[in-house]
Amino acid sequence: MIGEIVSHYRVLRVLGEGGMGVVYEAEDVRLGRHVALKFIVHKALDRPDRVVRFEREARAASVLNHPNICTIHDVGESEGRHFIAMELLEGKNLDTMLTHGPLPIRQLLEIAGQIAEGLAAAHARNVIHRDIKPGNVFVTSAGFAKIMDFGLAKILQAAESLTDAESAATVTSGLTTPGITVGTVAFMSPEQARGEELDARSDLFSFGAVLYNMAVGAPPFRGPTAAVIFSGILERNPVPPLDIEPTLPSKLQDIILEALKKNREERYQSARDMAIDLRRLMRELDSGAAMGAISTTSQPRITAAVTRLPRTRGSRRPCWWASSSGSPPEPARGPLPRLVRT
Predict the structure, then answer these.
(1) Residue 218 CB neighbours (<10 A)
(2) Ramachandran area for residue 71 (φ above 0: left; ψ -120 to 50: alpha; else beta)
(3) Which of 81, 178, 185, 307 sits in a 20 to 30 Å window from 233, CA-based?
């Protein structure tokens, strides 16, 4: 495929391959810009009516225009191959960054604040991600956290929609969808694991799991199989982050554990609320007001509780970049859009 013209994109090189398809760097010959061209291979697109639904949902996701969301430029089809064109960026994948262990607290808060802002902007437009995890967050060389593949899980589920009777028989089909890995399962919300209808609060639980991973170096729910992880998500509370990393600010633990409440009525109700608390904690750290909230106890680090999930070496996703040493800037202080529940 290298060198071919697909629609109005010249394919230049392979960037990576995942459960949903192959991603290439390509040149938009009309506009002269380079993009990440993701070809979608999925059973949901084997019927014309599903293709129409897929394209409609993809275009709905493409309206998201925010510095912390990877932009969808285009969606289309060429010779039976369905693709999404996304912005091409340089920087680091959060999943790769976490291979070195927990993030420094200020870097964690800078990235987390930007993720919260991106989620708030998307939720205000009734777009739910459904697959928030470190592998879907990039930090660009300019210092911006970018949420990737926004809406893709919902797009494919929408394209795969059946009649009500068929849907009742396949309510948990999303858990066996190609591309769903143990890494994805580890960041699912309880309602997602149960196959229930989702709203924006599902993303907040997943975001809480990402925060936990950033703070202690591993997800809150771990295990060798999806079944073991589901059991933890549904039935067990996570080990408190301070039990693993005693030097963390206690307020950060409070934010994480509130996001990880199993009952969505009890957890954070909006990404805006999470962003406000993260910003407040950053300000307190900058002013020194939160120093008293940082544990100085001499209790030993609990390392046995942290077992890292296997990682796929060299994995890449849309919003691509080379390694960069740049640190993300402090999140913007402006007001966030009001969350509209779906």
Answers:
(1) 20
(2) beta
(3) 178
Angstrom distance (rounded) from CA 307 to CA 223: 8
Encoded tokens for 223: 């295990």
Handedness of CA 192, 108, 99, 102 (dihedral sign): negative
131 is catalytic: yes
| Residue 273: both structure tokens together | 């609320």
Long-range pairs, 44-50, Cβ under 8 A, ≥24: 44/156, 44/157, 44/159, 44/160, 45/82, 45/159, 50/159, 50/160, 50/161
β-bridge partners, 86: 36, 72
From residue 210, give the alpha-carbon distance in Å to each of 1, 99, 333. 36, 14, 22
**Residue 29's CB: how many other CB atoms inside 10 A?**
12
- Please say whether the dihedral angle defined by the alpha carbons of residues 178, 184, 188 and 193, taken in this order, is positive or negative: positive
**Which parts of the chain are beta strand (E)?**
5-6, 9-18, 21-28, 34-40, 72-78, 81-87, 91-93, 137-140, 145-147
**Neighbouring C-beta atoms of residue 109, cutoff 10 Å:** 26
Residues 138-165 have pLDDT tens digits of: 899 888 899 988 766 665 555 555 333 3
Measure the CA angle with vertex 232, ends 103 and 311; round to 5°: 45
Predicted local distance difference test score (pLDDT) of residue 192: 92
Q: Which of 95, 131, 149, 277 is catalytic?
A: 131
For the chain, which residues make up each domain, given as ranges? 91-153+175-293
Return the amino acid letter for 199: D
pLDDT value of residue 317: 43
Measured distance CA(260)–CA(255) in Å, rounded: 9
What is this structure's pTM?
0.76
Residue keyed to tokens 């084997």: 46
